[in-house]
Every structure is written in structure tokens, then in C-alpha cells.
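Reopening this one. Same input as before:
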Amino acid sequence: MIGSWWIRFRRGLGRLVSGQSLQWRLALLTGLSVAVSVTFVGGTGFLITRWSLLDQLDQDLTRTAQQSASVLGADVDNLNSLTPDALGSSGSLLSLVSARGVAQSPAGQQVELPRAPEEIAIARLQSDTSERTVVASNGVEYRAVTVPMSVVDERGVEYYAVTYARPIETLQSTLGSLWIVMVGSGSLGILAATLTALWAARAVLAPVKRLSTAVKNVTQTDQLNPIRIYGRDDLGELTQSFNTMLRSLQQSREQQRQLIADAGHELRTPLTSMRTNVELLVADERSGMLPPGARSDILSDVAAQLGEFSALVGDLVALTRDDHLQRPHEPLELADIVMASVARAQRRGPGIAFDVDTDHSQVMGDASMLERAVTNLLDNAVKFSPTAGTVTVRLEDGVITVVDAGPGIEEDALPHIFDRFYRSDRARNTPGTGLGLAIVAHTVEAHGGTVKATNDSDGGARFVMRLPLIEVLEPEHAD
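Same output, byte for byte:
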């Protein structure tokens, strides 16, 4: 029963809290915590105060009861003289109960105290005392204390119990006032703590609010505006990281737009040429307008254009895909990659000589991606080297150097040589998609390396690709 009630309470509290904003949740939880603390401390203080006042009253009543017992112990007939004024408290009551259960009160006392078994037990046993709250015959609550008493006369020893009582109206009034003060001050404290927590939460969460607004603005307007940073705390670092993400997203978006624009421009040329040739073939099919042999030349041109188009699409896919982020890298012998790429380049440039020298450099990477990048460097060298020229390939400590025998690269083209679709003046009439070196830069960057293009001192272009080596721990030798 209690378990199910607790579960329902937790679910209700969870729904109440989860339906509010973060600052209201913090304020409500703070207020709830303060309320629990105030209730516990206030309730404990009230009970301790009540116990302390009752204990003090009981001690006072016990002293008066013992004094009355001393007076009555000398002569029981003195009972009528023990008036409230004589006992020092107006409204007080006195009762004398014998061991046989006979009760007596002062002659002028009209209000009677109810008899209790404790009084007879104390009278008979003549030990211990009793404190209790009783309701007298007039309907008023009294605090009563009973003490033992014995009377010695010529008939022997008589045993009695003396009960002395006072109204607790003053005590109840004091406790009632204390309760009102504690409830009022506690409520004000809880309200003040909740409002303070709400203000503090609003102040602390202001950067989060601005960050949330910025995210909504990005979602609704598609504008990647950075957020102002107001501090160097954790939220300031979060805002800075968000601004960095916005800048990266903006840069990625610009690159995507540029790639789409460049790809559209580059794809339009072979498509237009193929469309023209196909239209000629269709017209010739209807009218026979082409001279002998021209149809075969057009088909060869279409096949070449399809090959160029397929190469361009393949390079675009290789440049834009990010599957290298998912595919795990593995240890590779870089010399095997270089020799496989040289073999492919030799088939494409049968008249070109390759001067190759490699070491045993090992790297972590994707074999297919690295082989494509090295092959693109070698294809570029073959493209610009004259017939019977020599391409020099060196591998040392993870650094691949490729030097061709061509005319070199113009100085103004060096900063843009790895840009997508970039072609220098010397390369405009050469075949290719303009994406080979961009793929090289993309692959090397994905492997944590660098690539640089310069002109060799002996002529020709010089490309240097650096890849991080695998750290090999040397075995420890025992002395």
C-alpha cells in the first residue's frame, strides 16, 4: 500500500517537474528542498520547545505538590486551607486520594479532577510520581502531577496521593503563537528561497537561453550567426564551441556550394558535347547527312566523352564521401602502396622511366585510399613529363617525394594547386578532371598528414607527402 502510494507520488512529481522549463524546475526543486528542511527543523524545534515548556511546568507542579504534601502530612485537616491563593496560582486544583480510593478536595474548590488509577497506585506504593494532562469537570484542560504522601497518627499510618493541577491554557496559547510564527516565517523563507532560486537560475541560464535562441534561429532562418560570449566559464566555453561549430558548418556549406557550382560547370561541358554528337547521329539516321567515316569518328568522340564523364563522376564521389571516417585504419607497409601505384602509372605512361627508392616505413591507414592518392601524384607526373622522361619517387621515414621531368608549376598557381577543379594555364589543354590533386590533399588530411607542391631545383614539379609513422616500442633488454 505504502509502496504504491510512493510510486504514484513520484510519478506525479516527475510529471509536474518535467513539464516546466529548466529555470522553473531548478526553482521548484530548490523551494521543495527548503520546504523539507524548514518543515523538519521547524517541527523538531516546535516539539523540543513543547517538551521543554511541559518539563518546566511539571517541575514547578511537582515542587508545589510536594510542598502541599508536607503541609497535609502534618495534619490532613489543613486540606481546606490550601486554596489556590495559598498555593500561589489562581485557578489551580488540589486533590487528595487515599490508598482505599477515597478522594477529597478543599472545601472551596468547586471543580473536580477526574480520578485515575495512577493516583491509587502511587498512594499504595508510596513511590514514583505521575504527570498527565486531564480535562476537569468544567471542561478545561489541566496539567496534573501526583506525588505520594503518608500521615502518621494514633491510628497508625495512612497513605495518600496528592494531585496538584494547573490550567495549560497559557502554555497552549504560547505554543499556538509559536506555531503561527514558525509557519509564517517558514512560508516566507520558502517563498523567498524559491524566488531567489528562480532569479539565480534565470541569471545563470541566460547564456543557455541565448544558445537555445541561436539554435532556433539557425533552424528557422538558416543563418549561421555566431553568439556573443559573455564570460569564460563553462557556458562561455560551450558558446565558443558552438560558434566554432557554426563557423565549420558555414565553411562546409560554402565548400559544398562551390563544389556543386564547379561540378555543374565541369559536367556541363562533356554533357553538352555528347548531346551535340548524339543529335548529329540522330539527324544522320534520318537524312544521311554525314560523310563516310564521320559517324565512326562521332561515336569514338562520344565514347571518349563518356569516359571523361565517368572519371569526373568517380573523382567527385571519391572527394565528397566520408567513409574513411567509418572504415578502420590498419598497419600498412608504405613501400607496398608506392610500388603498386608505380606499376599502375607505368601502364599509363609506357614511355616514362621511374626511379624508385623506398624504405620500410609503416603507417596506419586505408590501403585503397592511400594507393589512389599516390597514383594520382604519379599520374600527374606522367601527364607533364615528356616522352622518355624520368619520374623520381622516394620513400623515407613516411615521406613520399615525387619529382617529374616537366616544365614545373607557375608561381602564382602554387597556392591553388590542390583546389578542386583548378587548372593552371599549362594544364588547361591536358586531359583530366581537375580533381586528382584535390583527392590527394583530402586523403592525406584524413590520415593526419600533409602534402606540399614546389618546383624542383633541376626543373619539374616536386610533390612531398608526409604521413605519420607507427610508433614502434623498442624491447627492453635485461642487464
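So the earlier flakiness isn't reproducible anymore. For the record, The chain has a mean pLDDT of 80.
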